[in-house]
Amino acid sequence: MRKFLLLLFTLAVSLGCTYATPKVPKKKVQRKKTALVNVKTKAKDDANVSNPNLPVIIQEDRYGCYYADTASCNEFSTAGMVNWAGERKKLYDKNADTVKKCLQALKPQTSVVPAKNAVAFRKAMDNEIRSWRKLEALMRDFGNISIEAQYVLNDGTIWLVVRAGMHSDLSYTRFACLQEDLNTLSGVLVKAAKEDKGLLLDTLYAQMQLLRPVVKAQLLKKKWKYTMAEARKEAQRLNYSCSVSTVKKVMGKWLEARKTVGGLLAEPYRTAYNLHTTTTVHSFIELFMDIDQ
Questions:
Q1: Cα distances (Å, whole numbers) of residue 211 to 3, 128, 203
Q2: What whole-number distance in Å separates Cα of residue 247 and Cα of residue 244?
Q3: Residue 279 in contact with residue 67, Cβ under 8 Å?
């Protein structure tokens, strides 16, 4: 989303300026090149990742490493930027789905998953996928409602772009995490980047709470010409649906599912897998910080 915000700022200065991303240079962390290893060529082609050296981009900010989509948008209109982000989301969703199928079909080496853990590992992987679906749906709903609240308070078609960027970034995060998982579970030995910041869940939830200011019924009544009853109902939805407390519960189940999978792996694959979890949570922090900016 920072790409879009920078683009609009650049346009305000000069329509002739060239758009570049990201807004502030970040330290890139070269954890590894991400390639689909030991999977069928057709699966890679279906995912539009036929290049086996396709990298997962990881950047580092004050809250640690996170997955970063650094693709550049050359559109200048609101509609163009929204459509561009929508197409990126479709691509990442497609790639993530293909990588997920590769993971489901994968039979890890005993050096990665000890033979005694094989059955439990498969069940744990399936549970992680189910848990993510619930978390993803909730995070998307939370983002939508947060942006609706911001629009009520601040107006501006920029929020259409922010919303599209949020969904694209969330899709990229899952794609990147799964692709790193696939490499790890395929037995690719990698030197994990040092990550000593932890999950930073308190930081994530605090940031999410900042995106949920109280929207008063009176403002909605005036802005949208609602009846008072309609305004109260809408205020109730904007203020209380998809609460941070609900996110905490669903997030907890997904983190537990990831922990279970990691616990069944041998080292150093366990450490690498758990690092993907941490990087994903840090990506959530960056995602919601972008909305607040």
A1: 20, 27, 13
A2: 5
A3: yes
Give yes or no for a contact between 172 and 286, defined as CB atoms under 8 angstroms apart: no
Angle subtended at Cα 101 by Cα 186 and Cα 187, rounded to the nearest 5 degrees: 5
Q: Which domain holds residue 113?
A: 2-292
Helix or strand (DSSP H, E) at 277: helix 269-292
CA–CA dist 195, 282 (Å, integer): 11
Residues in a beta bridge with 67: 58
Q: Determine the Cα–Cα distance for residues 53 and 101; give it in Å rounded to an integer.
A: 20
Give the Cβ contact number of residue 118 at 10 Å: 13
Helices (H), strands (E): how many in the chain? 10, 3
Q: Please count the structural domains in the chain.
A: 1
Which token pair is 212? 């949920």
Output the tens digit of pLDDT for each of the chain's 293 residues.
555 544 443 443 333 333 333 333 344 444 443 333 333 333 333 333 332 336 799 999 999 999 999 999 999 999 999 999 999 999 999 999 989 988 998 999 999 999 999 999 999 999 999 999 999 999 999 999 999 999 999 988 999 999 999 999 999 999 999 999 999 999 986 666 666 689 999 999 999 999 999 999 999 999 999 999 999 999 999 999 999 999 999 999 999 999 999 999 999 999 999 999 999 999 999 999 999 87
